[in-house]
Amino acid sequence: MSTQMRDEVHAAARRAREASIPLATATRAVKDAALIAAAEALVAATDRIVEANAADVAAAREAGTGEHVIDRLRLDAGRVAAFAQGVRDIAALPDPIGEVVRGSVLPNGLRMTQIRVPMGVIGMIYEGRPNVTADAAAICLKAGSAVLLRGSASAAQSNAVIVDVMRGAVEAAGLPADLISLLPSDDRASATELMRARGLVDLVIPRGGAGLIRAVVEESTVPVIETGTGNCHVYVDADADLDMALGIVVNAKTHRTSVCNAAESLLVHRDVAGEFVPRAVAALREHGVLIHGDAAFQAADPAVVPATDEDYATEYLDLEISARVVDSVDDAIAHVRRFSSGHTEAIVTASAPTARRFTLGVDSAAVMVNASTRFTDGGEFGFGAEIGISTQKLHARGPMGLQEMTTTTYVVEGDGHVR
Amino acid sequence: MSTQMRDEVHAAARRAREASIPLATATRAVKDAALIAAAEALVAATDRIVEANAADVAAAREAGTGEHVIDRLRLDAGRVAAFAQGVRDIAALPDPIGEVVRGSVLPNGLRMTQIRVPMGVIGMIYEGRPNVTADAAAICLKAGSAVLLRGSASAAQSNAVIVDVMRGAVEAAGLPADLISLLPSDDRASATELMRARGLVDLVIPRGGAGLIRAVVEESTVPVIETGTGNCHVYVDADADLDMALGIVVNAKTHRTSVCNAAESLLVHRDVAGEFVPRAVAALREHGVLIHGDAAFQAADPAVVPATDEDYATEYLDLEISARVVDSVDDAIAHVRRFSSGHTEAIVTASAPTARRFTLGVDSAAVMVNASTRFTDGGEFGFGAEIGISTQKLHARGPMGLQEMTTTTYVVEGDGHVR
């Protein structure tokens, strides 16, 4: 491990910590003014950002990167305007800091209040899209924390300009520039040092593919929030309205395939399989979906390929789905418990007891009853901003908004109370 | 790493997971009945427990263990009755499971509810005192989770009997015995395997000395909540009522020295140092406290020994304190930020702005204004049960009651909603 990289990451973390101290007591007005200034500066710097991005895109193309990855990397004036607007939208959200979570007067007269306070220093490790840079920086700043950004090497030039522009705007607005820092991305060691900077960094959030998240979880000594792996199921119950079920299955699978709340697996109750399986297969095939199915699904259409346990465990993020018939809601729950990543499951049923059984039986961040898995989303839930969707049970589970980016402290006031 | 131990821990975790499924939907009445039965069974088994404990105590004495450690290990009928009563008290607390944390109807008509649900499987790694065994098992059961207990080898025989008795009572009450399991403690590997059983165990809580907690944080891949290290400060401001300050300093340091919310460091504003330092030194010395002080404290009494940075960083857990004079509240804040473990700080001041500045400036789980640090405690805060005091910012900060032992899920109900 390079000592030089460690020193560099630690020094950045210390500067971020220093910067976070005045931010912790900054008023909402000051924070919002800085965010709006940053949004305006990003729009004003559109040409610079797009130019730097063109260099990233050219380098990616030269390295033989696939077109769909390049599409996520590419910025144009419209995309810059969109993430600048995202920064403005974050400014418009209520300030989570100072919120009273609970409070009471204790029997001895002590006045206890639990209030939301900033985390301090947050590390973000992410891949691909440079719009995450502006988004993460704005969310952290609004939540009162400094951020250390460790983006992808493929977006290094885009990220450098975005961070430079935002730092300038934040400083001009009277807050420390070191609230937003970009770590080097040309060396894996910068990510490793970030996740091992316990005591200097309060929280690391990895945002990206399953491999990245696994690596961070395995190596980090800083507390981590896992995000985004979604092997989501739709279970069509015996008591389902089958037209409704068809609409939900197709929407959950095909509305957007590359997102974590897309469905990856379909379970159908045996009692309705005879009618529903052929309809589902036809509708999915019409949308170009490759189906990995059990015997019942294979019998419905020769284009259905056999499903293995590996298929049931796979998050395709593509026009593919695994599918099987189950004997009961309990059988469906057992399947979900075995294969799910704990993101979102949906049940389609008109039966309230069955819905309740499924809801309490699976063990996931969100359960949709008669609705598409696609609704697990900070925007849909009304949180405004979203840093990711947590699939872990600690601290935050499901879409993480500004509240989930804070911690709390107990303030206890007395009149000389002793024990 | 022994594969055999891994298999054993993983097998125990899988049995615990299976057991946790029916518990997740058990009513409060069923859980409380099991806890009350366990309490009664513990009292009925007093002789068996005390006998097993005598063997642990004899082995500890043979190994040359110090008397204060043996005192914490020792059980008699009174101590068994006390922890059995603790189990009954946990039964009497409200059930955190099912509590609605937030809920709303989204603009599209989806009905969203965030509800408290169990963690699943919780691992406890702890030292010394066998009463923790009954306490941790009862808290986890009430919070709807199965527990894997990894106690100290020195309490192995006591723990074995306590767990056996509680398992029997839980099973007789109609819940799975595997909700409470004791892992072997004669091999360090059982703790290591527990902390690395990611996917099988949802949360690990270490409860013990700083060394244990550091080891768990460093090695664990399962999410961890750090507990209990308390380098707590009392800051006596220029605007303090000095009689009140004296009472708080003495209480915070001497009321009970071996606990994490005892004061370990005293900071005094220069403006009142001339009057307060000699009084504080005299009062602390009268209680037998060894003072590691700066020049001002040394000048007050030749018995004051010089303080080093190491002293300022030390959690003495004994009749010792570090002490220095500071120039301002900001100087006090900077000292606390540098040396504190983030547990509890106290300020004594009549000035509201100064209290507010200190409260927001330090970065700790709890801040006492004109009250002793000793009040940071689940019982004092009215939480009823307490599994420990978290000094980390993620998930839970400060005393952890039943709520903090749960996670949440979003249940979203629609009428065929798609995006």
Summary of the model, kept short:
Two copies of one chain form a homodimer. With 419 residues, chain A is of the alpha/beta class.
Structural commentary:
- The structure is a homodimer of 419-residue chains.
- Chain A has 419 residues and is of the alpha/beta class.
- Chain A has two domains: 3-227 and 395-413, Aldehyde Dehydrogenase, Chain A, domain 1, CATH 3.40.605.10; 232-379, 3-Layer(aba) Sandwich (Aldehyde Dehydrogenase, Chain A, domain 2), CATH 3.40.309.
- Helix content of chain A is 45%, strand content 21%.
- Chain A contains 15 helices and 16 strands.
- The first copy, chain A, has helices at 3-24, 28-44, 46-62, 67-73, 77-92, 131-142, 156-172, 188-195, 210-219, 242-254, 270-286, 295-300, 309-312, 329-339, 352-361; strands spanning 100-105, 111-118, 121-126, 146-150, 180-182, 203-207, 232-236, 263-269, 290-293, 305-306, 320-326, 344-348, 366-371, 388-390, 398-400, 406-417.
- In chain A, the strands form four sheets. Chain A has a seven-stranded parallel beta sheet with strand order 10-9-11-8-7-12-13, with helices on both faces. A four-stranded parallel beta sheet of chain A has the order 5-4-3-6, sandwiched between helices.
- In chain A, a hairpin with a 7-residue loop joins β14 (388-390) and β15 (398-400).
- In chain A, α2 crosses α7.
- The first copy, chain A, is globular, with a radius of gyration of 24 Å.
- The mean pLDDT of chain A is 95.
- β13 (366-371) of chain A pairs parallel with β16 (406-417) of chain B.
